[in-house]
Amino acid sequence: MWTVNLRSFMKTTSEKLVGRWLMLGVIMLIIQVLLGGITRLTGSGLSITEWKPILGVIPPLNEAEWQIAFEKYQQIAQYKFLNTDFTLSDFKFIFFWEWFHRNWAHFIAVAFLIPFIYFLRHKMLTRDMAPKLIGLFLLGVGQGFIGKIMVDSGLNDENLYVNHIRLAIHFISAMILIAVTYWFALGKLVESRDRQHQPGLQRFSFFILLLLLVQLTYGAFMAGLKAATVAPTWPSINGDYLPSSVFSHSLIHHPINIHFIHRTLAYIILVLITVWSIRAYKLSTSTLFNRYKLLPAALVLLQVALGILTILWSTHVARNSFGPFEWMAQLHQVVAILLTLVMLWTVFMLQLERK
């Protein structure tokens, strides 16, 4: 009997440890996405013109190497048409953020592989856990290749920035990786007694989550096309509430249309989460869910406020640095990620674990 209890305790302890490790991975992945946001806002994404997954860990070590890297950057359109006034010091600034973004990805890989090998060697992973973890690692590797494809779209004589569709794919694939890791971690950390079977509210949560995915995609379109700057007014869009371009131009390429869709989805999500919160408030659910069930409402209100401020301050874009607009845009992204994860948490909490 004591042996059985000890084995059960060891299994539970191992799962909790794996869960905390995965949650640390979620935090590291969020930091990576935020570094990507800083890289984009500072115009740093095209500063490193070569893709060297291993040798790229080492930055230029002397002035001669820096000058070579700078000369390679001078061959692309972003320098020729946008940053011709750049000094070597300016180049070093944008180089740092892209270098940091790439090498944080390497750090995540190391932070995954070493504990994974340890857990595997000490038989702390159940038979179904190892394949899932390997799948997570492969998703992360795939994300690196998607990033390369995205950067390549801006390394030419025509484009000032990376392609906004590829940027969106890069961002959404990162969010999917974060979401899968988070879901896996919740499965190891949350007790069954803290979850509640509420299929109706869970379906509502899942619908909002899908809508958030569309909204995040359009947020990436906004970022890639600098669409906030084309309509720095609120509540109207340059005096219109329904731009005429909606009926005559692309909904995924035209900046005004993307801006309109992004705003409209924000209002719809605000209304839906308000309704969801009223329904959740009336439920008698587990203590853990009760404690945080109004968090989506608080986050969506904050997100809308940050979105409005980002739009209004988009007339003050600080090129290759951080001003009020850049701070608002970055906070807007942070809260978007948190809101998405909180809604994913509600989907998880409103179902009972299958036996």
CA-CA gap between termini:
23 Å
Structural class: mainly alpha
The percentage of residues in β strands lies in under 5%
SSE order: HHHHHHHHHHH
What characterizes the major β-sheet? none
Categorize the overall geometry: flat
The total strand number stands at 0
Question: Characteristics of this structure?
Answer:
disordered N terminus; 69% helix; mainly alpha; 355 residues; 0% strand; flat; single chain; 2 domains
Could you characterize the architecture of this molecule?
The chain has helices spanning about 1-40, 65-75, 75-80, 90-120, 130-150, 165-190, 200-225, 255-280, 285-290, 295-310, 325-350. The chain is flat. It has eleven helices and no strands. With about 350 residues, the protein is mostly helical. Helix 1 (about 1-40) runs antiparallel to helix 11 and helix 5 packs antiparallel against helix 6 (about 165-190).
List the helices and strands and how they pair.
Elements: H1 2-41, H2 63-73, H3 77-81, H4 88-121, H5 129-152, H6 164-189, H7 199-224, H8 255-282, H9 287-292, H10 295-312, H11 324-349
Task: Kindly summarize this structure in a few lines.
With 355 residues, the protein is mainly alpha-helical. The chain contains eleven helices and no strands.
